[in-house]
Amino acid sequence: MTIDLKTLNIEPRRQTFGHIARRFGEDRPASRYEEGMLDVQATKHFHYKPFWEPDKELYDASRTEIVMQDWYALRDPRQYYYATYNIARAGMRAAAQHNFDFVEKRGMLGNLDAGWRAKVEDYLLPLRHVAWGANMNATQICDRGYGTAVTAPAIFTAGDQLGIAQVIGQIGMDMAGGGGEALEAAKEKWMTADYWQGIRKLVENTLVEQDWFQLFIAQNLVIDGIIYPLVYDSFDASGQAHGAAAISMLTEFMSEWFSEHSRWTDAVIKVAAAESGTNAAKLSAWFTKWRDQTGEAVRPLAAHVLGDGGDAAVDQALATLNARAAKLGLST
Fold first, then answer.
1. How distant is the alpha carbon of residue 45 from its chain centre?
2. Which residues contact 291 (CB under 8 A, 6 or more apart)?
3. Which InterPro entries does the annotation name (predicted)?
């Protein structure tokens, strides 16, 4: 008995989906990111206009003053779609949990000086409420934004901010021996402590901003761009002299996330600013507005944590942010 083996070269009739072929002008293979992000959002055949905003379509580019010829030019350099995003975050979360296990096993939080431990409870634990506000803002950007290239990473960011709030909550429970007392105290500080009220007002102001691109500038570029370096660099560096190595380990997730998140933020703003002088002017005005508000809002917290060094730390964060914005084509 003999068996003859033959190979057949089967040519696919098409290389990709129709919407991708139409965008590229040819039927060529596309990446998973391109297939999952480009031209996915509906643009016509809507059944009704939203009852809560009858002057708009369900997906409407006029929900921001920024104008783009192609909204899908605002692409994510990380090329995240659902699978790659979850794979990346699963790895980061596993590393964070390893740090928690390491700190808990060795009782490292017990090495904190009593005075600095109190400051950590003052400045770090209430940040879970800032992260919750950022979660709401990212969801708003997804809801009101235009084009899947922006709205998909926005909802990923909403998940990130919720995760950051949970990490802070986990730190608070560890500091209280597994209970929620430290988190309850942190909520009270968020509501009543003088050094938190400027930031609380800032967060509340962002929650009512209707222009989603202005909200993108306010939250992703400015608020995160000032608070993260201030808290996870300046405050953390000051804590090293007080036995705060454990806090550095437990907040490494936030530092790593901010570096990665900034890549997407910068890419979106840079392309939008380069689109037209009008866009650049609006983005610059929004940047200046929220930078000034945020800079003033964080000064009382910085003074509470760093004393006389607080203003210098805020000034350094502002200088770094201004340099970053200038590279994106914004006037500072």
1. 33
2. 222, 226, 318, 321, 322, 325, 332
3. Ferritin-like_SF, MP_mOase_hydro, Phenol_Hydrox, RNR-like
Q: Is residue 4 part of a domain?
A: no
What is the full DSSP assignment across 31-62? -HHHHHHTT-S--S--S---TT-TTS-SS-GG
Q: Which domain holds residue 282?
A: 78-327
If one counts every other C-beta atom within 10 angstroms of the C-beta of residue 184, the result is: 12
The enclosing domain of 233 has a CATH number of: 1.10.620.20
State how many domains the chain has.
1
Q: Give the whole-angstrom CA distance, residue 300 versus residue 313.
A: 12
For the whole model, what pTM was predicted? 0.93
Q: How far, in Å, CA of 290 to CA of 180, rounded?
A: 33
Which tokens in the block code for residue 51?
A: 């009852």
How many angstroms separate the CA atoms of 282 and 288, rounded?
10
- Quote the radius of gyration of the chain (alpha carbons, Å): 23
